[in-house]
Amino acid sequence: MSVTHEKIMLKSFDADQARRVLELGRETLAIEADAIRALHARLGDDDNFVRAVQLLYGCSGRVVVSGMGKSGHIARKIAATLASTGTPAMFVHPGEAAHGDLGMVTSHDVFIAISNSGESSELLEILPAIRRMGTHVISMTGKPHSRLAKLSEIHLDISVAKEACTLNLAPTTSTTVTLAMGDALAVALLDARGFREEDFAMSHPGGALGRRLLTHVRDVMRSGDAIPAVSPDTPLARALLEISQKGMGMTAVVDAERRPVGVFTDGDLRRLIERVQDFSNITIRDVMHANPRRIYPEQLAVDAVAVMEEFRINQMLVVDQDDRLVGALHIHDLTRAKVI
Predict the structure, then answer these.
(1) CA torsion, points 242, 243, 247, 249, in degrees to nearest 10?
(2) pLDDT band at residue 8 under the 50/70/90 scheme
(3) Which of 6, 174, 179, 291 has the fewest C-beta atoms under 10 angstroms from its C-beta?
(4) Rounded to whole angstroms, how far apart are CA atoms 215 and 283?
C-alpha cells in the first residue's frame, strides 16, 4: 500500500503581508535590544550581581540551575555555558527534583532558580528543602517582590517592560534577558578564574579550537618504519625507492647518529630531471637540501602548520632534544587530524 505525502506549498505574501512580516521582525529585535539595554543600566546600580559572582566563584561544589517551561530551557543553556567556561554546573528539572533528583544537590552547591513570575510552584515546593540543606540560593525573576525572590539569598532582577509577542504572552523578551544575565555571570566568572583558551579547549576536545590547542605533533606524526630516511651516501635511485615506498613525497637524509643533514622531495626530483639525464652516479648527498626544517614532537600541531605555510613546504622532520629523527609530518596528516 503506497503512502502519498502532500507537498508543502509555499504561500506567497502580498506586499502588505510582507511589509508586516518585516515590521514585526524589526520590532521584536528592537524590543529585546531595549530590554537588554535596560538590564545593562540596572546592573550598574546592583551589587547583587557582584555578590552572585562572588558566591559562584567560591562554590566548592557545583552550580545547579533549575527552571520550568521556557525558563527551564534557558536554565539548561546557562548550566551548559557555565560548565564549558570553567564552572562545574548542571541542570536539574524542578519537577523531577521533587521526586528524587533533589539528591543530586548538596550543601556545597549553589542553586540558581529561574522563574519570570517568581511564583513557579515546582520551584517553590523544593526551595525550603534546598535551604535546609544549607545550599546557597540565587534567584533570577522578573518580580523582585515575588515569593521566589524572597526565599533566596541573592536576587537578580530580569524584569522586562513587555514581551515581544504581539499578545504580550509568549516568553520572548523575558527569555532573552534571562539568557543574557546568565551569559554575564559566566563571563564574569571565567575572567575571575583566569580561564584561558587552553582551558576552553579542554572542555571542547572535539571542536576546532580543541583540536588546535590540544593536538601535538607527536599525535599526528609518522614514526618508526613509516619514516622515510636514508644515509647521505645512498644512491639517488635507492632514495627514490624509499620515497615511493613510504608515500610521503620526500625522504630525510640522516647521519650515523640519525641526525637530519638534509631532505629530498618530489619537487626536488622534478627540478632535477629538467637538468640531469643520468642518475647512475648521483648520491642523495649531491642533490639534497641541507639543514631541513625541524619541529619537536611536544610542539602543537598548529606550530607545524604555521612553519609549513610560511616556507611553503608540505613536509617536516620531527626531532628530539638531541636532534635525532623521531618522526615525519606531511600536510595531509594535519588535514586528516582536522588541525587545518
Answers:
(1) 160
(2) low
(3) 6
(4) 37
Pairwise CA distance, residues 66 & 111, whole Å: 8
Distances (CA, A) of 271 to 167, 225, 276, 285, 293: 74, 28, 9, 16, 20
**CA–CA separation, 197 vs 199, rounded Å?**
5
**Contact yes or no for 136/153 (Cβ under 8 A):** yes
Q: Is 275 exposed, middle or buried (0-12, 13-18, 19+ CB in 10 A)?
A: exposed
Q: Could you read off the pLDDT of 265-289 as tens digits, one per residue? A: 999 999 998 888 777 889 999 999 9
Q: pLDDT digits over 11-36, tens only?
A: 788 888 999 999 999 999 999 999 99
Cell numbers that stand for 142 in this block: 522578573
Cα(323)–Cα(316) distance, integer angstroms? 13
Angle at 255 between CA 251 and CA 257, to 5 degrees: 120
Three-state secondary structure call for residue 290: strand
Number of Cβ within 10 Å of residue 55's Cβ equals: 17
Q: What is the 3-state secondary structure (H, E, C) of 53-83?
A: HHHHHCCCCCEEEEECHHHHHHHHHHHHHHH
Strand partners, 315: 330
What CA dihedral angle connects 305, 309, 312 and 318, to 10 degrees? -20
